[in-house]
From TrEMBL:
GO terms for molecular function: protein-N(PI)-phosphohistidine-sugar phosphotransferase activity. GO terms for cellular component: plasma membrane. NCBIfam families: lacE. It is a multi-pass membrane protein. Pfam families: PTS_EIIC (PF02378). The keyword Cell membrane applies. Residues 8-404 form the PTS EIIC type-3 domain. It comes from Enterococcus malodoratus ATCC 43197. This is Permease IIC component. It is found in: Cell membrane. The phosphoenolpyruvate-dependent sugar phosphotransferase system (PTS), a major carbohydrate active -transport system, catalyzes the phosphorylation of incoming sugar substrates concomitant with their translocation across the cell membrane. Keywords: Cell membrane, Membrane, Sugar transport, Transmembrane, Transmembrane helix, Transport. The lineage of its organism: Bacteria, Bacillati, Bacillota, Bacilli, Lactobacillales. The keyword Signal does not apply. InterPro entries: PTS_EIIC, PTS_EIIC_3, PTS_IIC_cello, PTS_Sugar-EIIC/EIIB.
């Protein structure tokens, strides 16, 4: 194990750290972090409107109070203000974050990015999650182009002394903004020249939908379950590093699932963020809620474990496991390496096949990631079978961690007796 750790620290960690610090990925991750409350609210609004499908009595109750189905207008209005314009937010925020990284005008870059996004025709069909990939591309390109043009002295209109700074800044970015938006206008004209009437719909069908389908496979789910704890084992925040990838498929998958279920069809996408959060990341990366319970069951004689465990139990209920990561620790802990890596892979396997066999509904609602285990499974699937599946995975995690906690406890007692 020591040779393996030394090898990984020498050959793998430096490259992984570079990827984790890559400015474009950080900009995407931070953009989705800002929009997370909106996505949670939008998902809850969709759940409220669709609750009458799974619980007809609820629909009758609400119709009786409001004298019809006008109450569903609330959910529709909230969806319009969240998922309905999600791509617009992302186009702004990605450009904003990148420009901020370069030390240039972030607000100007964000505004130009939104203008460029609409120049491509977003007003027709691209404002919701359908245009998410295009929004990411536009935000990155605008930030790269705009920040370079803003730094060109030949494009700056110099204002006389006494002009307010805000006015001077707007004129300084006048030509860079015009050039950047014009580039996307030219792109839109070229695409239209090839007979493409709706670029966003075409891009979704040709690129985004196949990518989501590829990411929805069991192999990709297994890879997600592996790579996150694997990176964490070496002290790298695995969840943050793969978050840009997860978020790119997350909102479209949730929306497609909700629309399919509302139409009485099967949900097309199993793998999304609420699926992973509710059935795999219980207690945090590595299904560490099982480790906390295992320590209480068989590790009570291990005083160092118990001290950390007592501190980690409360945060662990809300899926925060940094006290375990660095206090136990799990980072570079050779004894815990096997259960920490394998437990999420087993849990995602049971969840994936339980969903694919139709035993559990697909996740269509995104509860806050701090939602306690089992409750999250119920909310994400709007089904008690989701809660049962989460409980099964919880038991699996406990069983996986118990023998390794026992081993660590025996080693600690041996060390104490020798001392």
């Amino acid at each position: 194990m020591d040779k393996f750790i030394n090898f990984m620290e020498k050959h793998f960690i430096p490259h992984a750290s570079k990827i984790g610090n890559q400015r474009h990925l950080i900009a995407i991750r931070d953009a989705f972090t800002v929009t997370m409350p909106l996505m949670i609210l939008g998902a809850l609004a969709v759940m409220l409107n669709n609750l009458s499908l799974s619980i007809p009595a609820f629909g009758k109750f609400m119709n009786g109070i409001f004298g019809g189905d006008s109450w569903t207008g609330f959910g529709g209005a909230v969806w319009n203000g969240t998922f309905g314009v999600l791509s617009v937010f992302i186009a702004f925020l990605v450009a904003y974050n990148l420009a901020h990284h370069y030390g240039k005008d972030p607000v100007g870059a964000g505004v130009v990015s939104v203008a460029s996004f609409f120049t491509l025709g977003a007003a027709t069909s691209g404002m919701n999650s359908t245009g998410l990939f295009v929004a990411l591309i536009v935000g990155i390109i605008v930030a790269e182009v705009f920040t370079r043009l803003v730094g060109n002295e030949k494009l700056v209109i110099k204002m006389p002394d006494g002009v307010p700074p805000a006015v001077a800044r707007s004129f300084a970015s006048l030509f860079p903004a015009m050039i950047t938006v014009s580039i996307f206008g030219l792109i839109a004209a070229i695409i239209a020249g090839f007979g493409v009437k709706d670029m966003f719909a075409e891009f979704y069908a040709l690129v985004q939908e196949p990518f989501m389908g590829l990411a929805n496979s069991y192999g990709s789910a297994l890879l997600i379950a592996f790579i996150t704890p694997f990176l964490w084992f070496f002290g790298l925040h695995g969840a943050n590093m793969i978050d840009p990838f997860m978020q790119a498929i997350n909102a479209p998958a949730i929306e497609a699932n909700a629309n399919a279920l509302a139409a009485g069809k099967a949900a097309p996408y199993i793998v999304n963020k609420p699926f992973v959060d509710s059935f795999v990341n219980m207690g945090g990366t590595g299904v560490t809620i099982g480790l906390i319970i295992a320590i209480y069951l068989v590790g009570r004689k291990n005083k160092p474990f118990m001290v950390v465990n007592n501190l980690a139990a409360a945060p662990g209920i809300f899926n925060i496991n940094e006290p375990l990561m660095f206090g136990l620790p799990l980072v570079l802990n050779p004894i815990m390496f096997i259960p920490f890596i394998l437990t999420p892979m087993i849990c995602i396997s049971t969840a994936y096949f339980a969903t694919s066999f139709g035993w559990v509904p697909a996740a269509t609602v995104m509860p806050p990631w701090v939602t306690p285990p089992i409750i999250g499974g119920f909310l994400a699937t709007q089904s008690f079978s989701g809660a049962i599946l989460a409980a099964v995975n919880l038991v699996i995690s406990i069983v996986m961690y118990v023998p390794f906690v026992s081993l660590a406890t025996r080693q600690e007692l041996k060390k104490v007796s020798e001392a």
